Amino acid sequence: LEAAMRPTQQVRTHAIRMAHENIDKTLKAGEAILAQFDLTRRAEATILRGPHEDLESYLEAVDTLKGISRFFSSNKNFRSSEGILNHVNGLLAKSSLKIEEEFKQLMTTYSKPIEPDRLFDCLPKSLRPSKDDEDENANQSDHPSKGLETAVYKIPTLVPPRILPLMNDIAQQLVQAGNQQSCYKIYRESRGSALESSLRKLGVEKLTKDDVQKMQWEALEAKIGNWIQFMRIAVKLLLTGERKICDQIFEGGNFNKDQCFAEMATNSVVTLLSFGDAVAKSKRSPEKLFVLLDMYEVMRELQPEIEVVFEGKACSEMREAALGLTKRLAQTAQETFADFEEAVEKDASKTIVQDGTVHPLTSYVINYVKFLFDYQSTLKLLFQEFETGNETESQLAVVTTRIMQALQNNLDGKSKQYKDPALTHLFLMNNVHYMVRSVRRSEAKDILGDDWIQRHRRIVQQNANQYKRVAWAKVLQALSVQGAPGSTGSSTPADLNSSGVSRAVIKERFKAFNTQFEELHAKQSLWIVPDQELRESLRLAIAEVLLPAYRSFIKRFGYVTAPITLHDLLLIFGCCAELHPLASIELISRLYHMIAVPELQNYLYFVCPLKHLSFMLTDGVAPKTLYFGEQHFLNL
């Protein structure tokens, strides 16, 4: 019987155990359901209060409701599951709207424009504007981008760090709720508006090519300087900061952050680049070359940051726009460089310098070339943009040599406008000497080389010799009696001196010498040799030719002239007074007693004309001492 009943007992035991297990499961399921109801009540209370008081608790309540929704979705056999699901989903819909409002509120509250002073404080000290900027800008000699390689920029805090995680949580909730487009729109509008306002406060404005073309050069130059500063601030500070904010707000989850950032920054980037485009496309002129190089430099400098800030396919259009501007600036700068060379050679200004000094074109071109050498590295990059070879150094030398040759060709043409050949050579001597001296004192020496310097020094010497020959030929001719009338046998013996030269001829030559010298003095006292060393060497060269001829003439024929008169003595006194004012009375006394000696009488007679040598070839101010006159008088 026991054996027969044993299977029946086992079945009953198993049934009882299963019943107990089912009861336990039911109780646990009931407890779980009750717990979900309890969670729902608490979450509902938080949702109804809204996110303003405690955003973190609010977001936790939303997560709780999402868990409840998943629970009842997987337990649809519970007869009240559909009702509770509808209730929970309704709460989630309400929470989504409130979260969106909170996100908008947060973005609006913490998306204020940055004041310019705050941005300037984030710049390296060398780039910060000072109170004396206006004065300093008028006398900037240093190349603006020197030393910027190691400059440190401090990215400003655009949104408090404690707020960014909350924004990220909200953004994730909105995306999970299917409201990503609303989320992206709020971000674009708030951050985009803040960025545009920050740039406006700085002074950024959108200008067209026509706007640029209408500006006076001084105004345009100032705006270009500002634009360079704005570009650095925009890329290195504002856009870099905005990119970090975007990455933190949309960190994790399924966000299209590159597209969001691109759409947010587009208007600001277009405004910034539009000015650069307008300048690059405006009418070319030589003075624009340096600002074009400055603009090209800053775009090259910012290229690495642009690549990082605008990474991703969505931002490719802005990367390409920036790169396109860099290439346009390079192209315009190169064309302007070529225009300058042509403009130098074809400069048709009719204005000539009446005194033979350095022409304004010469100083302009030399200063232009010297300034170019502040941009050597930039010019090499410029040539690399369009050259296939690596000979950028020689390319710069070739272009510089062509500019200098164009200047010399133009000066040769201008020199032909002078009616006086002596002034022609003086003009060329002054200008080529200025070119040589300037090159020797600048970096152009290393580019043009010693051969160029030596070749042009020879040109200076050739023109100095030609000036000396042409200007002083008639004066020296007056001191020669060869071929003069009466120097042959046509005169009577009484009229001839021991050299067989007519006294009348000698007197005529004395008179001619004085006349020629006075005329030369009147004319050349208006001429200028601005370089002191060149001026002194020229004076010495003239003296070395003129004084020996004069002494020789006096030695041979000095006794032929009439005795010195009181008028001559007074002239001598005037000359001596200029030389030695304190010794004038003593000198006049000594000279008066010398009149009895015929040779000294005639020698003294010609001291006065030679005093004019000191006034010739001045630097624009008549000297107070009479160098040649003094030297000649002391030889007495």
From TrEMBL:
Residues 123-146 are annotated as: Disordered. One of its GO terms (biological process) is exocytosis. InterPro entries: Cullin_repeat-like_dom_sf (IPR016159), Exo70 (IPR004140), Exo70_C (IPR046364). Keywords: Exocytosis, Protein transport, Transport. It comes from the Eukaryota. One of its GO terms (cellular component) is exocyst. GO terms for molecular function: phosphatidylinositol-4,5-bisphosphate binding. Residues 226-558 form the Exocyst complex subunit Exo70 C-terminal domain. Gene3D superfamilies: Exocyst complex component Exo70. PANTHER family: EXOCYST COMPLEX COMPONENT 7 (PTHR12542:SF41), EXOCYST COMPLEX PROTEIN EXO70 (PTHR12542). Component of the exocyst complex. Belongs to the EXO70 family. This is Exocyst subunit Exo70 family protein. It comes from Aegilops tauschii subsp. strangulata. The lineage of its organism: Eukaryota, Viridiplantae, Streptophyta, Embryophyta, Tracheophyta.
